[in-house]
Design a protein that fits this description.
The chain has 306 residues and is of the alpha/beta class. The protein has 2 domains: 123 residues, Rossmann fold, CATH 3.40.50; 165 residues, Rossmann fold (3-Layer(aba) Sandwich), CATH 3.40.50. 38% of the residues lie in helices and 17% in strands. A 7-stranded parallel β-sheet has the order 8-7-6-9-10-11-12, sandwiched between helices. The chain has a 5-stranded parallel β-sheet with strand order 2-1-3-4-5. The longest helix has 21 residues.
Length: 306
Amino acid sequence: MKVLVATQKPFAAVAVKGIKEIVEGAGYEFALLEKYEQQSDLVAAVADADALIVRSDKVTAEVVEAAKQLKIVVRAGAGYDNLDLAACSAHGVVAMNTPGQNSNAVAELALALMIFMARTQFTPATGSEIQGKTLGIQAFGNVGRLVGKKAAALGMKVKAIDPFLSAEQIVAGGAEPADSLEALYSECDYVSIHIPATPQTIGSIGYDLVTRMPKGATLINTARKEVIDEAGLAKALEERTDLKYAADVAPDNIAELKEKFGARVFATPKKMGAQTAEANINAGLAAARQIVAFLKDGCTKFQLNK
């Protein structure tokens, strides 16, 4: 069987070496497609692949339809909105992600963005400290819990909300449960977003929530740009000149936001939450191990399209 690693943004060389060793050690063929320029390159490469590992690469219906032998695709990372789950299900392809492997990298970036914005993007202007401030965490999964733990160690008070967790589970994770999403935004100096982009969450964070935040508050987004109502955010920033926004992926209206609001807005040039050597390696190796476990033993522990 053939396992294809297809990445426009390549894994680190040491990760590729490790993936290859895992795949070939299990008796499977290893193939590599890196830095491809056209989606058609991926479509052509998957034609004889039994398994596929990707990063942020788009596994569309066209890709799945072209991969007649494909049995499993693993997204090396937590977010999986680049996988067409419906197409995978329709063609009997198991889709997985690798939750937890990038969590520490994203959590560290979230804290770094908070400090960066608190210190006025490291300009000579007088900034503030995050110690003693209240942090609200929207979604208390792997990343959210790590953000909370690190923030608490820096002297912040931590609150969290997660529709899939009980108040007891949030307390066990080290945070105070918020009574509601509206309360989280109203009571926190910083809010860190960790929700996925789904039909329910896309565009869900906008004017109403942002303007509930206390004076001088900062919204941090290391999740997905799609969860932000960009027009609503712009309106909130215009009306509330004390608010700030920092993101790990530039909103579509970033040029307008920066022109209007200057240092109150920041976005990384490209999504870099998982861009550490450690996360790169961990996610790639986890993806390879999950594929081997599936092909050999039928393990579907991290299946997304159940």
